[in-house]
Amino acid sequence: MRKVTVSGKTVDEAIEQGLTKLDTTREKVEIKVLEEPQKGLFGILGGKPAVVEMLLKPDPIKEAIVFLRDTIDKMGISASVEKEERQEGIYLNITGVDIGVLIGKRGQTLDSLQYLVNLVANRQSDNYLRIYLDAEGYRERRKEALETLAARLSNKAIRTKREVRLEPMNAHERKIIHTALQNVKGITTYSDGEEPNRRIVVAPK
After folding, report:
1. For the R3H domain, which residue ranges apply (predicted)?
2. pTM of this prediction?
3. Which of 34, 83, 106, 127 has its CA 20 to 30 A from that of 135?
4. Which helix (H) or strand (E) holds 135?
5. What does DSSP say about strands 79-86 and 50-56: parallel, antiparallel, or unpaired?
């Protein structure tokens, strides 16, 4: 965080000087007026300028990226992080070597990192931000694998006329299964159990 103390003939003039020094815009700073301007004798002699203290607010996305890069470095992994804005939110894409370590079993390490990154970002943000982590396209590959699994198990449920219970999954992955099967005739899906062991059940109608 950067802070400057500036002066000007008026408070607005001091603020404009501060914004120039910080190279930022008004909504990105906290402003504290230390001294109001005072006119001197006959409006000329002994006048005092306005004095303003300005603090640059942290950028939550930058804070999240710095935290993520630092965490990856501490894990001994050589990787880069790039920001991408998508319709559903901000994606931080990780590329490099030994990425499998960052992904973990069924993406559990990646999900844990994503949780921590969101904590860091929203600690610094006035409005809730949703940040997604991806590593070498893992999220899309996992989505495709889950959709394939959903189709196979729905066929099994219809064929055997019995419920099929999937392995425990996080809420995001369960949503992928529900969405993939919501229009399939002859079956229904629901979630069962408590976190972190909550799972999808595919049942014949």
Report:
1. 140-205
2. 0.72
3. 127
4. strand 131-135
5. unpaired
